[in-house]
Amino acid sequence: MSNSAHHDLATSGRTWASGRSWLRDNMSRFISLASIVLLVIIFTVMNPNFLGAANVRNLLTDISPLLVMSCGVALVLLLGSIDLSMGSIASCSAVMLTLTFTCAGWWSYALIFLFGVFAGFLNGILHAKLKVPSFIATLSTQSIWQSAAFLLSGGQPLTLIPKNWGYVNWVRAKSIGPIPLGPIPPLFLIGLVLMIVYYVYQSRTETGKTMMALGANERAARLIGLGINRAKIVAFTFSGIGAAVAGMIFAVKLKSGIPTVGEQYNLIAIASAALGGVALTGGRGHIILVILGVGLITVIQNGMNVIAVDGFWQQIVFGLLVLAAIYMNSDRRRRDLVVK
Amino acid sequence: MKKLFSALLVAAFAATMVIAAAGEKLTIAVSIRSMSSEYHMQYVAGAEAFLKTLPPGTAEVQVLPCESNDDKQINDIKALLASRGKNVILFVDPNNAPNITAIAEACEDAGVYWCSAWNTPEGITPFLYEYWVHHQSCDGVKQGYDIAVNLFNSFKTPGKGKILVMQGMLANTANTTRMEGLDQALKEYPGIEVLDSQAGDWDTKKALNIMETWLARYNDIDGVWCASDGMALGIVQALKAKGLEKKVGVTGVDGVMDAIEAVGTGDLVCTIANNGWMQGGYGVAYAYAAYTGKISPATMTPRERMFYTNGFLVNAETLPQYRKDFIESVPVYDYNNLDFPIARPMEVE
Fold first, then answer.
1. Residue A96 near residue A112, CB atoms below 8 Å
2. CB distance from B7 to chain A under 8 Å?
């Protein structure tokens, strides 16, 4: 639900008429959820194992890296900017985590988190302070971090040596202390926590709200004295953190540091955020709904293998479903709608 | 308009329902990098050839293309295992070597027999797992060495000349082993000078672009050692644009049809056909034998669980034989003879 929708609800006294109006205005937001439900029903009818515990665990694990990346880039997209360096930051993080376990042990996770802060902060400084367009700034840092990943790994995919497996085996945990997790994998909980933190920050803090405001109209936001540069730097830093966490997820999941592991995820993360209702033009969207876009993409990819769609057809079916979903998810009733 | 899209959505699913499997059949899954790769599709053709040896309607082949995405490869395999239970066997060419560990753990948890080709990290072997039947590979070092020696001996003065090196993807095991073979050959041929080495990422267009840059920079190139056929064909295109084809020797590896034809026209000095039909066919044949209880990984010899397969060096001399065996007829194998594909065992510490 957007801020304007909250406002509508509050001022209308929650009358039945305003409730219907709110429902109509927000209907498109729920179509992603409806699309997921529809797909889950169809996939389950075709193969009941789709909703089996093993596959639910698979789905939630698959969602995790894309979720943290998409939530991060969603903040950047709210600014009306873009971050193309996420995949490379993730690749570099995966390589660094694999390398540092031997010398830093559990502290490796903290080190890579700090690397994500640094990489994202650098993007923010380049964009906000040095006034480099985000597309160019992050395209440049994408190359830098990709090369760094190759240099650190010696151009080789790094396998986590068995003596360090103890640092990643928590990924298969079925409980946290006495609390059983059921089919929920620990990696998904990490994604969920990060998403909630980003959501709370974006929707409850002044800097978070500034991100939305400057995406809608940067000039106006500047005139009323909002902290534009701070909001930009924080958004890019959060995106860097999301990418680094995704890289760590890749590393622990694959037990390896592959220097190209994240490169495919830049556009998928952006597409997931867009499917979750984040406008690529900025100023519109909701972090919490990004999970619907991520879920939709993951359910489609997973489901096609579960129901054995022929490999030649998978990309066609995937493209058609995403197109149909984004069409149904977009609100075309606005009179001022501009499509570029 | 919305109704039209909804109808399209429904139609897409109707199509998938037609394509989808009936459920109870054995699924013979082949996990590959890409369906656009002729070599990887040879795996699939090999698996389909094996399928024809089974009673009709008892099994089906499912292809899992990962499109060079390591995470997708693992996700796809796990989704398949979750949906089919133990009623599946698997042949995998890991996108990168470290993927093997995650795949092995997933198959071990699911109790599914599987075989692998090409990429496996040091120290991770089938001997550590109950359901990993075998790992096979073409000898990348030998391939890199053989094409290098063929190239060097094709020069005006055999063993003396200037070469450029087009590598594949830097982080890929096939590339690093082929490069190791090149390095061995270079030590034996001190008259060869390497002008430059670049990564073409297994991509035809990227290789073409790099070659165009090289041609603008270097005047006296005798040959290009290239780590794959796809890239070699891009290089030949760049040479043709400058009228330098057949004057600059080019090598490839994989044995795709266009490269075989290029060897015939003299545009390529040589390539090595990896024989994906045999690799894919025997990959699933071994897994099926374990699935049916005909063999047991626990009692298989080390030679059967980790071995090299023979490739076929195709140059001007051997091309007629290759045409006869692999083009004019589809290779047919006796999948009951599981010893056939083993050229020699891998050395494992």
1. yes
2. no
Report the DSSP beta bridge partners of residue B61.
B28
Q: Could you tell me where in chain B the CATH 3.40.50.2300 domains are found?
A: 25-138+275-309+332-345, 141-273
Give residue B122's identity as a one-letter amino acid code.
Answer: E
- B76 and A305 in contact by Cβ < 8 A? yes
> Which residues have C-beta within 8 Å of that of residue A165, sequence separation ≥ 6?
A255
Is the CB of residue B107 less than 8 Å away from at least one CB of chain A? no
Where along chain A do its domains lie? 67-288
* Architecture category of domain B141-273 in CATH: 3-Layer(aba) Sandwich (3.40)
Prediction ipTM score? 0.71
Kindly state whether B241 is in contact with chain A, defined as any CB-CB distance less than 8 angstroms. no
CB-CB neighbors (< 8 A) of B85 in chain A:
49
Q: How far is B121 from chain A (nearest CA, A)?
A: 7
- From A264, A306, A310, residue closest to B83, measured CB to CB: A306
Q: Which two tokens stand for residue B28?
A: 């013979």
pTM of the predicted protein model: 0.75
Q: Which of A194, A58, A91, A201 is nearest to B82 (CA)?
A: A58
**Tens digits of residue pLDDT in B297-337:** 999 999 999 999 988 999 999 999 999 888 887 788 999 99
Q: What is the pLDDT of residues A56-66, one digit of tens each?
A: 888 899 999 99
CATH topology (fold) of B25-138+275-309+332-345: Rossmann fold (3.40.50)
Greater pLDDT, A325 or A152: A152
Is B74 in contact with A254 (Cβ distance < 8 A)?
yes
